[in-house]
Description:
The protein is mostly beta strands. The protein folds into three domains: about 10-120, Immunoglobulin-like, CATH 2.60.40.3880; about 130-250, Immunoglobulin-like, CATH 2.60.40.10; about 255-355, Immunoglobulins (Immunoglobulin-like, Sandwich). It has one helix spanning about 365-390; strands at about 10, 15-25, 25-30, 30-40, 45-55, 60, 70-75, 80-90, 95-105, 110-120, 130-135, 140, 150-160, 165-170, 170-175, 175-180, 180-185, 190, 200-205, 210-215, 225-235, 240-250, 255-260, 265, 270-275, 285-290, 295-300, 300-305, 310-320, 330-340, 345-355. The strands form eight sheets. The chain has a five-stranded antiparallel beta sheet with strand order 1-2-4-8-6, with no helix packed on it. A five-stranded mixed beta sheet has the order 3-10-9-5-7, with no helix packed on it. A hairpin with a 6-residue loop joins strand 9 (about 95-105) and strand 10 (about 110-120). About 25% of the residues are buried. Residues about 1-10, about 360-370 and about 380-390 have low confidence and may be disordered.
Amino acid sequence: MLLSSVACAVSGSALSVSVLKYEPVPAEIGKYVDVWVKVENSGPGKSEDISIKMVPEYPLSLDSEANALEIIGILGPKSAAVHKYRLFVDENAKQGVAYFDVQLQKEKDGAWIEETFEITIGSATFNSKGNVQIEGAPVKEPEVFIPGDSGTITFTLKNSATAYSVNINGEDFDTNARIQSATLQGMDGITVATDPYYGNGILGPGESMALTYNIIVDNNMSDGTYYLDFSTIGSSHSYNNNWRIPIKVDSSSLHIVPSKPLKLENGKGTLEFDVANIHPNSLSSVSVRLEADGLSFSPSEYFVGSMDPDELFTIQIYGETSSLDKTSPRELKITAIYRNGLNEHEEVIGVKELKLESIKGSNTSGSLVLLLLVAILAGAGYMIHKRRKQK
């Protein structure tokens, strides 16, 4: 089982120190655990006088203090050395996580560089033969994260046994399953904010339980698929499990484009946009807001609602300027507001040019003038006809 701080580079050199594995997993209370430490020279040059030192923390201790220092000596380019330490787990230790430091000295009488590693301490082993597996795919909310999002991953763990007992070499065993611990391990850019689960109960054949972990994705995380390690410690070492859980990060969200020319005639008009969800999963509470100097819009914020992936929605927003004298183009800022899971996002999708056009004499005004002239002429004709009749 690899530890969290694998291959941590030593600053300013081509040397790195890591922990390859430890056995047994978990380390047992009141017993020894073997830890394999690896020192690697990944550079093109030779390194000399390399030493490492084991510095455990309670409840861990060395089998002998004389074994703390190990002189590696010379490491050629692209080469590595592995040294095994023996640590004792105190009899009064509690199950959980224990820590130890490994110090690295890359030259004689030089400074020591220190890295911290962890191992899991479990309870005693059991003779139960039930095995815990993940049932179905882990449920992620949201399904795909945007950088800066927080969310959850829920695992359903099930005892895969179908009978209440099993006979092995003439001996009967129960098929209960124990989850002594269940740990989701974070990585650079993705933080697991939930502590490991430590359980003392059992799962009977076919029984299941759900475990939920909170995770946080860094604001600067690049798009891609990342893997978190999910591990369980079962009834005995033979029933420990490790899974790699994919986490998708995608910064795409909404695409908003004008579906007809961006212009207002005589200071007012209706603007039309196509709103598309280009994120891999559904977005909720989607709305669009327009802003431009000297203009007002109705509605001030157009509420679209939920949008499935690749869904397209056309909106119309009425715009009007407060001054007909100014006809210079305006900067139109288009802002999208939406939710990915429970994460609220507000981002400027684009800044476009909005034209203000003054249209002189339209068909409508000409028709009104014509109707007015017809009415005047008709009235004048009636008066002339009336005077002639009186004579």
